[in-house]
Amino acid sequence: GVQTCALPIYLPNPNPWPANAYASIAGIATTAQSASFTLTVTDSQQNSSSQACTVTITSLTILDFPTLPDGFVNVAYSYVPTTTGANGSVTWAVPSGSNPLPPGLSLNSSTGQISGTPTTAGPYSFTLTATDSHGNTTSRAFQLNVYAVGFYTNGGLGNVNLGSTFSLNLAAVGGAPPYTYSAGGLPPGLT
């Protein structure tokens, strides 16, 4: 990956920041490691300032989008995150300091599977950490929305040809049956 480190220059200078007041470190990392180094900036009058920096280069990456598929109260949920670049097996955890998984869900530390039956509706934010057998670690923050009741659809119902019959059965999920349904704003001819 490309690492960029921008350092402000703390030198006595009454003038506005010059255009070259930032430096870049760029390239393609070829070795997974944690590296410490010192950056030094020196101006044209030999005034200098140094800063210690650390960069961690890891091949292990969590590929999943931060927003996980929705869950519903009292409906079984299952999701397995995916990694790339792992050396050996991967161990999963909700790290200390992170919010917990939604109530009713648990994490399989060997597979990363989040599963169970959510018990409480709400938006949930938490972090998952993946560690491979060589000790490489990566984390990602996730959002999982749990709804009390909903439909087995994402809202896209397909196209309807003008003058043709259209029929779609919807199924409720979550909540407590029996269900009642209503629709507002349907196009003319659909009920």
List the helices and strands and how they pair.
Blueprint: E1 33-42, E2 48-57, E3 61-62, E4 71-72, E5 77-79, E6 83-84, E7 90-93, E8 105-107, E9 114-116, E10 122-132, E11 137-147, E12 149-151, E13 172-174
Parallel strand pairs: 4-11
Antiparallel strand pairs: 1-2, 3-6, 5-9, 7-10, 8-9, 10-11, 12-13
Textual characterization of the structure:
Helices cover 0% and strands 35% of the residues. The chain is elongated and about 80 Å long. The relative contact order is 0.16. The chain starts with 32 loop residues before the first strand and ends in a 17-residue tail after the last strand. Strands 4-11-10-7 form a 4-stranded mixed β-sheet, with no helix packed on it. A 3-stranded antiparallel β-sheet has the order 5-9-8, with no helix packed on it. It is an all-beta fold and 191 residues long. The N terminus is likely disordered.
Rg, Å, rounded: 26 Å
Strand percentage lies at: 35-45%
Helical content (DSSP H or I, runs of 4+): under 10%
Order of adjacent strands in the largest pleated sheet = 4-11-10-7
Order of helices and strands: EEEEEEEEEEEEE
User: How far is it from the N-terminal to the C-terminal residue, by CA?
Assistant: 54 Å
Main sheet specs: 4 strands, mixed
Outline, from the CA principal axes? elongated
Q: How many H/I helices?
A: 0
The overall average pLDDT, rounded, is: 83
Helix/strand class: mainly beta
Give a count of the beta strands, DSSP E runs of length 2 or more: 13
List segments where confidence is low: pLDDT < 50 over at least 5 consecutive residues.
Answer: 1-17
